[in-house]
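Hi all, posting the design record for the shared folder.

TITLE: backbone redesign
STEP: 1 of 1
STRUCTURE INPUT:
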């Protein structure tokens, strides 16, 4: 009788453990199948919570995932910012370039989520053919910080990193407040140019690089530059006439892996007459942050640091 009772007890324990195991398996399945609704630049999309296979085409979002310790399955390895060069390894699938995605490779990965931005926006429907869970997390430069914060909150919601994102954004806001006060006290004006071989384009408030003025508080020499992705085509005579106290230069060639020539092109006889040149205030911004990425937890912090240092 005693032996029979022990067998009954043992059987009961096994049944309880099996039931618990089934419940755990069901919970895990529910977590994997849970979706959230994301509003983004190109529409409203249902995306899985905590997706396992993620393909990312925006390096600002990518550096955010890197900082949060979130793994990705694939990225465009054709042009990777140097601060993310560890992702150039064979451990990650190469999904082409920023402008020419390798759709065949992406389809092989069969991702749960694809994140794109403005450079890939025209190809949105082709991405959706691979997975409807494709979202565009471009940064709206006319309201940079609001857009940046919305994107970060979205990433937090998708990957269950809400508290980490909140903490990071608080630090960013504190740093921006300090930088803005410093810029106001500095009382120097600035001009931003993109150097592309022997040509230059100027950018003002609300433009691609306008957060220097709009968010960081550095006065613009020209408030009337029309905001656009490609900037205003200008000459070095224009730079001389504007006579900026600080000249911020972004070298496109350096960003896309070509030989850097910006310093040779920019520091010519016309520019030598400006306050920026005379006071050694020509600042060559890191094109990895400003041209290739931007809008990420790492890149925004580094962009703030560069502008902060330029105001010393």
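Okay, here is what came back for every position:
SEQUENCE:
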């Amino acid at each position: 009788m005693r032996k029979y009772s022990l067998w009954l007890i043992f059987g009961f324990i096994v049944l309880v453990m099996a039931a618990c195991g089934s419940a755990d398996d069901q919970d895990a399945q529910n977590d994997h199948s849970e979706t959230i609704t994301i509003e983004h630049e190109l529409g409203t999309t249902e995306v899985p919570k905590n997706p396992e296979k993620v393909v990312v085409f925006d390096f600002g979002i990518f550096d955010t995932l890197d900082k949060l310790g979130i793994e990705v399955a694939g990225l465009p390895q054709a042009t990777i910012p140097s601060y993310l060069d560890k992702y150039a390894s064979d451990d990650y699938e190469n999904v082409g370039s920023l402008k020419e995605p390798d759709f065949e490779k992406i389809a092989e990965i069969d991702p749960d989520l694809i994140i794109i931005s403005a450079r890939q926006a025209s190809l949105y429907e082709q991405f959706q053919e691979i997975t409807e869970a494709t979202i565009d997390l471009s940064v709206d430069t006319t309201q940079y910080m609001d857009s940046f914060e919305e994107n970060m909150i979205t990433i937090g919601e998708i990957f269950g990193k809400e508290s980490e994102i909140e903490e990071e954004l608080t630090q960013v806001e504190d740093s921006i407040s300090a930088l803005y006060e410093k810029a106001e006290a500095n009382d120097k004006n600035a001009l931003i140019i993109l150097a592309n071989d022997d040509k230059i384009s100027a950018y003002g408030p609300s433009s691609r690089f306008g957060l220097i003025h709009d968010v960081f508080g550095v006065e613009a020499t020209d408030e009337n530059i029309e905001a656009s992705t490609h900037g205003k085509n200008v000459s070095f005579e224009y730079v001389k006439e504007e006579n900026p106290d600080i000249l911020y230069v972004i070298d496109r060639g350096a960003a896309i892996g070509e030989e850097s020539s910006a310093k040779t092109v920019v520091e010519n006889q016309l520019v030598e007459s400006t306050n920026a040149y005379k006071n050694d205030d020509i600042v060559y911004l890191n094109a990895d942050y400003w041209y290739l990425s931007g809008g990420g937890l790492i890149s925004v912090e580094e962009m703030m640091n560069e502008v902060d240092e330029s105001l010393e």
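COMMENT: Confidence is low (pLDDT under 50) at residues 1-31.
Let me know if anyone wants the other runs.
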